[in-house]
Every structure is written in C-alpha cells, then in structure tokens.
C-alpha cells in the first residue's frame, strides 16, 4: 500500500478507484440493522458495554475546571447508587483542560482525550495545529482527537490532508517513545457524499489513524447509522488489506440507549466482536450517559427512572 | 341503498400533541351499553404510558411557567371548542353510557361548564390558598401554591366525559401536566376529547390520553420515578391498594378513589390536591435602631 501515497496523483487515483457507495443500499442496511429488538440480559450487557465505550465529552466555551472535575467524577463513578456500574472509557475536553482532567483521573483506567488541531473548524496553520497537539500530549492527554482540513479535502488536495495527519501523528509521540492514540475526525456532515466519507476513511487510515471519528458534534449532521456503517466497512476492509486494526468513534447526536444499541448492532454485524470493546469502538457523547443510567436503573429495580435521579451536567 | 361508503373513525391515542396508534399495534372492541360494536380503541401498552410520561415531563416546564391568566384563557378555549362539537359528544356519551339524548346533553353541558369553572380558578387559587404568614423575625414570609409535576390519572369508569373532564381539568389548571387512562369500557368520548384539546392552544404533552386496561399499564406508572402524583379516581379497591403501595417508593402524592357525584359542585379539592406550597422568607432589609421601617 506504500506506493499509493507516493504522490498526489497516485493517492487521488487510489481514492477515486475505491468502489462507489450505493447510498440506497447503505441506508437500507443501516435501517434494517436498527430494527433489532434487544431485551433483558442482552440489553443489560449492551447498556454496560455502551457505558464503558463512552468518551464523556464537554467541549464548550464555558467549560470551567470545576465542570471538568465534576465530569471526571461522573466518569469514575457514573451511578453513585450502584457501584457495579462500569466506568466510561475516557473524558474528552479541550487542550487547556487536559491537565485538570488528568489530575482528577490520575490512577484510574479512564483515559483523557483531548481535541486538538484548531478544533472544530481546523482552520489554522500547520505549526499552530502541531503546537496545539504537543501541548495536549505534554499536559497528559492519552488520546488526541484531530480534525482534518475539510477545505483541502473537498478541493481535492488529498496529499496535503495525508501529510497533515502524519505530522499530527508524529506530534502525538511522547519523549519516552510511547504515543497518544490518534482519532481523526472527518466531519462527515461537511463531506457531502458517502463516496467522500469512504475516501476520507481510507485516507485517514493510510496516514496512521488509530481511530476514525465521524464528527465534531458542532454541525447540523453528526453521527448517523449510515455513515458509521460506512466507516465500519472501511475499517473492516482496511484490516483485510493491511492487517492493521483501526477503531471507530461516532460522535454527536447519540442521545438515547436505543440509538446506542443500534450502533452496537452495526458494529457486531459489520466488523464483529473484536471491535466490541472500548479499545476499538467509542461513543462521543454527553447526555447519552444519563439515558443509559436511567435504563440501567430500570433493569435493576423494575421501576422507570427519571431525570431527577441522574446528575445535571 | 346509500351512494356513500361509511367513513369509520379510527380512534387513536393523544400523546405529546399527536395522535399515535398504540406502539403495540393492539386494539380492543368498544361496545355500547347493549353490547353493540361501536369502534376499535387502541389497547395501550406500558411503553405507550412511558412515552406519555416523557411527553408530559417535556411539556411541564412551559406549562407550569405560563402565567395563570394564560392557562385560564386556554382552559376557556377548551370549553369553546367543546361547545362547537357538542352534538358529536352528546351522541358519543349517549352511546357510551346508554343515556337518553337529553341526559347525555346534560352531561356534556356539565363537562363544558367544568372547563369554565377551572378556567376561572387558575388565577384565583393562589390568593385563596396562598398568602403571607406572620413570623417572628425581620422577614416577609410568603406562601404560594406551585404545581406538583407530572400527574397520572385513572379516569372514572362510569362517567365517560364529565368524570374525565372533572379529573384532568383541575390537574392542568394548577400548572401540572397529566396523562390519563380513559374509562376502559367507554373510552371513545375521551379519545375524541383529544381532538378538542389539540385545537384549543393546549401545548402538546400537557394532556395525554391513553385507552386500555388500567390494571395492565398503571402499575408501571405508579412505580415510575418521574411521575409525581397519581389520582386513582377510576381504580377499583384492589387495584388502588396495589398502586398506592407501588407509589410509596418515591413519595408520590396519591388521591384515593372515593365516591363522587360528578354532577355536583366540584369545589377546589382536586385542584389543591396537586399543588405544593412554596414558602419564601424574604428579609425586610437592615433594621435601624428604630426597628423595621415596614
């Protein structure tokens, strides 16, 4: 696969040579998989799995250290009335909040993820983006969520997007030789076509992404079952071709347990059980956790719960 | 032979301002007092009830925050709309309860008047049950009634329209939102009332009307942590006891079933049953050597 990134022309030929997406078939498949009925023990398993896959996210201009610490406490102990509730996978914050989150999560297995590279627009010069990334890693981020330059991608400058992802991947290295895992956000809602999402997925994976992520959560169209299914197919095909496993993270707009379970069905039916762990599949979400906790309480007590019994974030 | 095909009405639930069928797809046959088939009504499931709680909760902020005057106007608007469809309701109540046309008309008139009665109370109940309290200290102490929240109601079984209006109007007059399980054997006037409410400026979700078996769907509502009060007007003694036990866990307000003459003056009992008293201590300000200036 090395030769496909040798030049702009080669990369373009490769990406445009990928099979076209059948949008009707894709959406029909995603919709059909969304009709599965998941009840009782399977539902309990799915709820716990979904909780353990959440990147509990706060990406607001109004974030304060206090809010970040409160969210960290929630990640560590999502339901204080039931200590058996699994922890979330990670906390996702802006780079300047990484040190606060890392301090609050020290000694736990909950990771600190940081968005970087001039999130969410990605409109900054490369040195700025790399400095943003290095700062976050130095402050203790375990994972970096970068945004691609959609302007360059849509203009057809694939190689420059590729080089940028590679440069950010390099900036994820720590001095001791280890590296933060890199999630590459495509902002699928801005890519216009399913073909573009497939191309972006391959481009990101070729450049060394550890995760490919649908969206920032800051635009009108975020994660949908169809675009997530398409990305799952891409990681499946990528592993079949190169042997490298890449994770998938749908983000934005997933608010209910029912939505989350639909995504888990997509994972199981497309890439299988190997991806059904928080090592390889994540949800970028905030309000989803409360709904999962309410459903979990319903299963354990037999009573429908209400918003009075979960935290207000 | 008539030239026209009959147009049968599909009776549907009223949840969140929309008219869905039961999520379960089930219906049951509704007959008149002599056993003649009238229509199929949706047989609601627990899931329908849960969706209705979500709709009622969503509507609560806006409805409880609306001014009492505005709520009164909307309740009066319900009376206006009901008056406009009086003939339809007279026919439905007559069939449902086996009444003569004149007796059914009296029921419908009383139901319309009941909306007017509670429309008048919305901006007066505060003065009647609230007020200032004498306290020892430099404070104004003011109590005022505030709505309890989401209220689930088992509608009276016999009085299909007047009884129904008599239990839901006081709940929403106070600023609560309500979901009601209509009379099991006579649900059609209740389901038609949904159409009146939908055209009366009542915000979607403030009133949610389900038809079906209270014994099937109400236990999950009585135990539901996001329901703040239940009115067991139409529950039999055995069911009422079970529901009251289920409601104890989150300290719901419970109104027990009691013999009520729905045609009589309703008073304010059902209105105040779903109001909480909020008391505010307000300092009178710094006291000079000469004491309070108030």
From TrEMBL, chain B:
GO terms for molecular function: oxidoreductase activity. The keyword Nucleus does not apply. Keywords: Oxidoreductase. SUPFAM superfamilies: ALDH-like. InterPro entries: Ald_DH/histidinol_DH (IPR016161), Ald_DH_N (IPR016162), Aldehyde_DH_dom (IPR015590). Residues 23-255 form the Aldehyde dehydrogenase domain. Gene3D superfamilies: Aldehyde Dehydrogenase, Chain A, domain 1. Pfam families: Aldedh. It comes from the Bacteria. Signal peptide: none annotated. PANTHER family: ALDEHYDE DEHYDROGENASE-RELATED. This is Aldehyde dehydrogenase. It comes from Streptomyces cinnamoneus (Streptoverticillium cinnamoneum).
């Amino acid at each position: 696969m090395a030769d496909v990134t040798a030049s702009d022309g080669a990369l373009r030929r490769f990406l445009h040579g990928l099979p076209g997406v059948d949008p009707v078939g894709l959406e029909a498949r995603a919709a059909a998989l969304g009709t599965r009925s998941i009840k009782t023990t399977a539902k309990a398993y799915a709820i716990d799995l979904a909780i353990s896959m959440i990147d509990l996210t706060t990406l607001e201009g109004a974030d304060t250290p206090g809010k970040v610490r409160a969210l960290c406490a929630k990640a560590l102990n999502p339901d204080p009335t039931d200590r058996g509730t699994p922890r979330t996978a990670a906390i996702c914050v802006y780079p300047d909040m990484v040190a606060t989150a890392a301090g609050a999560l020290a000694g736990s297995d909950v990771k600190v993820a940081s968005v970087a590279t001039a999130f969410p627009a990605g409109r900054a010069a490369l040195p700025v983006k790399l400095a943003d990334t290095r700062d976050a890693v130095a402050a203790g981020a375990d994972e970096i969520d970068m945004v691609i330059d959609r302007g360059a991608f849509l203009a057809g400058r694939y190689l420059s997007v590729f080089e940028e992802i590679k440069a950010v991947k390099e900036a994820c290295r720590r001095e001791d030789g280890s590296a933060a895992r890199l999630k590459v956000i495509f902002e699928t809602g801005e890519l216009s076509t399913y073909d573009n999402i497939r191309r972006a997925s391959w481009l990101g994976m070729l450049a060394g992404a550890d995760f490919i992520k649908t969206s920032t959560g800051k635009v009108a169209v975020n994660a949908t079952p169809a675009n997530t299914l398409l990305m799952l197919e891409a990681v499946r095909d990528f592993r079949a071709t190169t042997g490298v496993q890449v994770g998938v993270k749908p983000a934005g707009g997933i608010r209910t347990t029912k939505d989350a379970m639909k995504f888990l069905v997509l994972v199981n039916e497309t890439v299988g059980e190997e991806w059904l762990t928080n090592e390889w599949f994540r949800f970028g979400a905030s309000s989803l956790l409360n709904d999962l906790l309410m459903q979990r309480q319903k299963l354990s007590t037999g009573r429908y719960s209400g918003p009075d019994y979960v935290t207000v974030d | 032979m008539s030239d026209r095909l009959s147009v049968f009405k599909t009776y549907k639930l009223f949840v969140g301002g929309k008219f869905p069928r039961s999520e379960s797809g089930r219906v049951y046959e509704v007959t008149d007092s002599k056993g003649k088939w009238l229509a199929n009504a949706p047989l609601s499931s627990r899931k329908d009830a849960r969706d209705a709680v979500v709709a009622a909760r969503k509507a609560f902020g806006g409805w409880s925050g609306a001014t009492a005057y505005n709520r009164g106007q909307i309740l009066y608007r319900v009376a206006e709309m009901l008056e406009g469809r009086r003939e339809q309701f007279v026919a439905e109540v007559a069939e449902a309860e086996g009444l003569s046309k004149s007796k059914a008309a009296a029921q419908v008139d009383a139901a319309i008047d009941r909306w007017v009665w509670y429309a008048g109370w919305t901006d007066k109940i505060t003065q009647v049950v609230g007020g200032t309290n004498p306290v020892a200290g430099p404070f104004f102490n003011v109590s005022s009634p505030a709505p309890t929240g989401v209220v689930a109601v088992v509608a009276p079984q016999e009085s299909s329209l007047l009884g129904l209006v008599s239990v839901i109007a006081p709940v929403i007059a106070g600023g609560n939102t309500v979901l009601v399980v209509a009379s099991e054997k006579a649900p059609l006037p209740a389901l038609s009332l949904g159409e009146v409410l939908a055209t009366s400026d009542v915000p979607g979700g403030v009133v949610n009307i389900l038809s079906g078996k209270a014994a099937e769907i109400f236990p999950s509502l009585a135990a539901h942590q996001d329901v703040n009060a239940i009115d067991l007007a139409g529950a039999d003694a055995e069911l009422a006891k079970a529901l009251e036990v289920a409601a104890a866990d989150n300290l719901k307000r419970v109104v027990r079933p009691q013999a009520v003459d729905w045609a009589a003056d309703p008073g304010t009992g059902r209105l105040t049953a779903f109001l909480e008293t909020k008391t505010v201590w307000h300092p009178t300000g710094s006291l000079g050597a000469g004491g309070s200036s108030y």
